[in-house]
Amino acid sequence: xxxxGKTSLNGDRSATVGDxxxxxxxxxxxxxxxxxxxxxxxxxSPSNAGEYGALKASGNGSLVLANLTIEDRTALxxxxxxxxxxxxxxxxxxxxxxxxIDRTSPVRESPECEILMPGKSPRIKVVFxxxxxxxxxxxxFVVGRDGKVEMINNPESPPxxxxxxxxxxxxxxxxxxxxxxxxxxxxxxxxxxxFSTPARESTSHKTDSQQSxxxxxxxxxxxxxxxxxxxxxxxEMAPQxxxxxxxxxxxxxxxxxxxxxxxxxxxxxxxxxxxxxxxxEVPRQLNESRPLMALKDTVAGMFNPEKxxxxxxIRSPHDGGFAVGRYGLSSGLIFSWxxxxxxxxxxxxxxxxxxxxxxxxDSLAKKHKVPKEFASKFKNHEFTEGFLKFLNKLxxxxxxxxxxxxxxxxxxxxxxxxxxxQLVEKFASKSDGHPEDVVLAMQLGKPIERxxxxxxxxxxxQQFMDAAMKMFGLALAKHETRRSEKIEWEDGGDxxxxxxxxxxxxxxxxxxxxxxxxxxxxxxxxxxRFGISLAGRSAYMAAGQLANNSRVQEVSMQDLRPGDIxxxxxxxxxxxxxxxxxxxxxxxxxDHVQHLISGRGYGGTRVFRxxx
Length: 612
Description:
The protein is an alpha+beta fold and 612 residues long. Helices cover 37% and strands 15% of the residues. The chain has 22 helices and 19 strands. α3 packs parallel to α6 and α9 packs across α16 (413-429). The chain is flat, with a radius of gyration of 31 Å. The two termini are 35 Å apart. Residues 1-29, 44-55 and 213-217 have low confidence and may be disordered.
């Protein structure tokens, strides 16, 4: 039953609430509220949309429904506008002014939560709705896509140590809508001010200016792993350094990739995908494969240089040196690159061997590792001396500053690209098929062989590597997709921007083994990483096992997507059948990578998709 506006049900209907013998009307209040609540569920759409009414208690303990009005609160409320949630207003004030829709239930038990200790300010946690898997997160406030705010639990009764704001999202939505962004910013700032320690101690007699002073004196911590609250609002709420020590631009990219988690299924254009990566201004190099281009783009994307001038970026990390250019090249990376060259130790002696530096650069130019015009400059001792001073400054932050003019002279765009190619390719050869390790090593500015377990196990670095894997999948898809085509992606429960996590794992495994005749072993080994076990000797046997797995769904061949598993049945000419993981663009991976097999000549084809 869909209600528009208000609908009244008049008449004399009686209902008995429990055993009323010897009870007073006050003791029956819970029963009254329960009846109202149950009536709303039965008569309104959506359920629990809202209710109010008048009930009379008769002398014998029964309740007579005199007039119960069911109100559809989906028509109530109005979008929150900038500045509308004044810090002096109470939650009751905001409900009465329809800026917050009260969805709390009078009969709902108080949720189990950590109680706020006296003298403390609460944490504010901001999350996106998870469309893929169920979570244990119980929001106190929900911000709709239309900018309306609903209160599910009142954080004042009892006072909660953590207040959760959840943003509703549509299928495939990755960022808050404009009106939603305004609403979450206003709500987060309101809660930060309203529930800070000074505000709780005294609010009604303070002016807005005094409230602002109180806000500055007691900062409320905000947990926003997906960057849903604007940076400006966060700074006003709590201008604090991130505990994880990731540079701000890199943290922003981690947050952007986190938004894929729980987003369901969606698509984006090639142009939209390119927005995740800094612009590349140097053409594709000789022998630069698409996977190498994708991995380089991931390194650049996670470093997140200046948007307009990525190759001119100069950033000073916490270690006192510099990370520069599109790829965040640091002294550790440059020395790792130069350390591959013969006689480098002797060349960098004191004093340097000037002639050998020129010969080294000539040798690199002949191998297409640096541009010829760049190598020729080292015939000039003054330029060579400037280059060595540049390296020293890059390492220790000497003189405290670095200019774009120095960067253009000693590390121009083409050189940045060639250095990045050589480093990424070298690190990838030592990574045992883990691109996230390559990206982390580049981010930390150290050779991959010096990447320690402590580096990988640090919580912020684990978040970084998880985001890097998502971005690598997106980069691969971008390079395999025309700008006019759509990139289909599906969360699958872990936030992968494509179901590419399975696909890329299968591709890496197949490229590593590169055999023929062992398709079942190759795919089974890949799926084992995702908790899917397959048994038996023949590929066709996987179909029944996947069909009976609660985490796997059988789908139509017409809906084939990257990451899907194809199982071809056995036939007279193929007694073991065949199994492979679809990579997209008519390619598949099993124990090797090849063109997609149509299934002709096999005993039928079934397609399966890992859902969680």
